[in-house]
Design a protein that fits this description.
By secondary structure, the protein is an alpha+beta fold. Helices cover about 15% and strands about 45% of the residues. The chain has two domains: about 40 residues; about 140 residues, Jelly Rolls. InterPro entries: Ice-binding_C (IPR013424).
């Protein structure tokens, strides 16, 4: 019986370590058109561990992809470290290329035509740090002004694993069962010969 209580307590404690994805940050309003080169940063609090960001990269007018002589390069940084870089045809010509990205990343680019802008849908895994994290999105390239090209970000969100309140309850209950089981154990009798 006591062994069963001990096993149940350990099982509850182990189940209590599970985590679920929670929304850590959601962008308010879209940025609108910004000049290239340029950047925008967002800060949010997180527990250390795996996370995910998704966002829409908006190209205005003729944002250039790779290989057309005016290549514009998009970079995503987490806490000052480059995690994704690429060049995407968002109305300016050239071709779409991701130079590097984390395993499991998804990038889907759509351009209606020359000088008509375009959109890129991004889903990027993150390795979050404990405490405040900073996500920076930037463009570099030839400064051509908003009359020629621009970029912006919309629908940005960050999710990450955080313990649920019910998970904490199960964890505490599991440790309580283990403690109660150990406290009720009787010491073995010593025999004298």
């Amino acid at each position: 019986m006591k062994l069963n209580i001990l096993i149940a307590g350990v099982a509850c404690a182990l189940l209590g370590t599970a985590a679920s994805a929670a929304t850590l940050f959601t962008q308010g309003a879209p940025t609108g058109a910004m000049t290239s080169p340029g950047s925008v940063s967002y800060q949010f609090a997180a527990n250390a561990g795996a996370g995910l960001t998704s966002f829409t990269l908006n190209g205005f007018n003729s944002l250039d992809g790779e290989g057309n002589g005016y290549t514009d390069v998009f970079t995503l940084k987490l806490n000052g470290t480059d995690i994704l870089s690429g060049s995407y045809n968002l109305g300016g010509g050239g071709y779409d290329i991701t130079y590097f990205a984390p395993v499991g990343s998804s990038v889907s680019v759509s351009t209606p035509g020359s000088w008509q802008g375009g959109t890129g849908l991004f889903s990027i895994p993150l390795g979050l740090a404990q405490g405040t994290n900073t996500l920076t999105l930037s463009y570099s390239g030839n400064a051509q002004g908003l009359g020629d090209e621009g970029w912006g970000v919309s629908n940005l969100s960050v999710t990450g694993g955080v313990p649920e309140p019910a998970t904490w309850t199960m964890l505490i209950a599991g440790f309580g069962f283990v403690g109660a089981s150990l406290r009720r154990r009787k010491p073995a009798l010593a025999t004298l010969s």
